[in-house]
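Render this sequence as a predicted structure.
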Amino acid sequence: MDLQEQRSNEFVHSGVVSKIQEKSILVSLDKNIQCDSCSVKGVCGVSDLSTKIIEIPNTEKSFQIDENVTVTLKRSLGQKAVFWAYLFPFILMLGTLIIASAIFAEWIAGLLSLLILVPYYTVVYSLRDYFQKTFRISVMRI
């Protein structure tokens, strides 16, 4: 696989190391021109602001503050992240609303469809270590 083909399968952002913590680094991402052609830019949190800060596990422990870096994420993982963060909760809410509206009054069904997100995001939060390993973001010096 050549470099151009490999880059087409990845989201690549340039950024600067803004803070170093014990087990992670905070990287300020610059606005990326690739975001303009991305199919999921409407729901992605990276494309909506000119600068975005993300936390990345620091396995090398050799980065310096204000160091220029390149942050890379596989496109397939980006789509999975959109699914778990936006699409699945919507489907869960809609399914709960449809089922609950057949059993309860409308206001109760609406309330249940909103309250179903509490256990969902609690489970997502409890699985944050799994998601952090699954959605591996690589950082390289420029």
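Summary. The chain has one domain: 3-141. The helical segments are 3-8, 75-103, 106-115, 117-126, 128-134.
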